[in-house]
Give the backbone structure.
Amino acid sequence: MSYRSNVMLCLLAGIAAAGSANAAAPAPWLNAPASEPMQLAAAAPLALRACADADLSIVVGRQGARKGFATQEIRVTNQGADGCFLAGAPGIHLLPLNAAPRTLAIHPNALANVQERAALGAGDTAILLIGAPGACEAATGTQRKVNTRLQIDPPGGGKRILEGAHIDTLCGDAAVLHLHVERRPAPAGALEQLTAAVSVGSPAAGGDTMRYTVTLSNPTGAAIALSPCPTYTESLYANGVAASSTWMLNCGASGNQIAANASVTYEMQLAVPAKLQAGDAKLSWQLHNGPAVGSLTSLR
């Protein structure tokens, strides 16, 4: 072999050794069983201050009917970066033409869903339903008493004049009938952007522990957070028998994220039921709200 060939082989060996030395070790298996998949939707926020006018987007919503009342929906969205609360329904006043403002009463059951205090996280929306009696003898004629302008006073200060409502008080006074909060959905799809690959080691026997690895890869240009830490479900199918269990992923070992254009490999363990006999088997692995992967294997 020539000197040049020897040098080239040495260089290639050195590169391979360096790559092997720099490869990250798999994240160890975490012995943390979970009774059910963890839900990623955020809980109601802890709001320590009252919502002010500057925090809110307030728009006129749909018209409708509810239990004999003609209704007008008002949507109040927290557009701030942190949580705030409405101490019950905000002060709402009708602004009729050529008449003094009229403050709306709060129906006794209006706040049953929010326990007199509606906490709004960033992006959450409070739905206020204003209603007035929808039928009376006078309503059979052509006369109407429609109010289109409202003044809304958030508990944290400021006021908002709202145009475009339709509240007809011909048959009786209007009131706030109902208030509930629509939570902004938790960011969806982030975990679904991950891809997964599984690698099974030596075949296991019934009663043994199957050891394998799962590699999660992030093909996007931004890190994908593993917070809150998701669960995964592993399943083994063999001889007409299925065994499944759900565990917490070892998120801390990867810094609670998978970096952009990077991969993390996780060690896995699965207890093989003793009653399973030797033969072909199928291993399935599913990250909650994320990718699924499977592999054919065998039991000895």
